[in-house]
Amino acid sequence: MKTTNIMIVGVGGQGTLLASKVLGRVLLDAGYDVKVSEVHGMSQRGGSVVTYVRYGEKVYSPVIDEGEADCIVSFELLEALRWLSYLKPGGRMIVNLQKIDPMPVITGAAAYPDDALAQMQKLPLKLSAYDYLVLAEQAGSAKAVNLTLLGTLSNGFADIPLSVWENAIRELVPAKFVELNLAAFRLGRELPQ
Fold it and tell me: 56-94: per-residue pLDDT in tens?
């Protein structure tokens, strides 16, 4: 069995770490050997964050090199562009269309690219781009955007039952937020592929 590589990228404060923990738990519960990296980058609110999740029969390292990611889940549009070189040709990119200005844009030293989505649409990749923030708000909180993205990602795992995903969410999300996060996950899972 080959090792599969997933990157979860975003901005500090968006819940990327929880998403990677849920994904790691799901994969472990499904019987895979899993390595989840520490968060790389500035995890405080506003900084770029990336987590590597690798799984297979036996995984020796958590690190994913450029051109090796089978899938990138991006919580923010510009972060998708920032990490695009890590995606394999023909890989899957799940992108939240939300825009969060990085510090160089806030200070006026740079401009947010107007054509970020158009750049990705020209490439040989499987692109799922949606305003996941809207789904999270429908579920009850903008903070659940991470679970909406995981819901879409879960569709790529036909061999892992929905109950495994939901159990991992119940185990890792604080009890008072479980139902809201399950609702967000289901909304992301119901999006057309």
Answer: 999 999 899 999 999 999 999 999 999 999 999 999 999
Neighbours of 100 (CB within 10 A): 20
Number of folded domains in the chain? 1
What is the domain extent for residue 34? 4-189
Report how far residue 165's alpha carbon sits from residue 118's, in angstroms, rounded to the nearest whole number.
32
Tokens (6 digits) for 193: 């592929």
Question: pTM of this prediction?
Answer: 0.93
CB-based contact 45:13 (threshold 8 Å): yes
**Beta-carbon count within 10 A of 172 CB:** 16
Find the angle CA(138)-CA(141)-CA(144) to the nearest 5 degrees: 95
* Tokens found for residue 173: 């999300």
State yes or no: pLDDT of 23 exceeds 80. yes
- How many Cβ atoms sit within 10 Å of the Cβ of residue 104? 11
CA dist., res. 131 & res. 110, Å (int): 24
- Fill in the amino acid letter for 47: G
Q: What share of the chain is helix, strand, coil (3-state, %, to 5)?
A: 40, 25, 35
Which CATH number characterizes residue 38's domain? 3.40.920.10
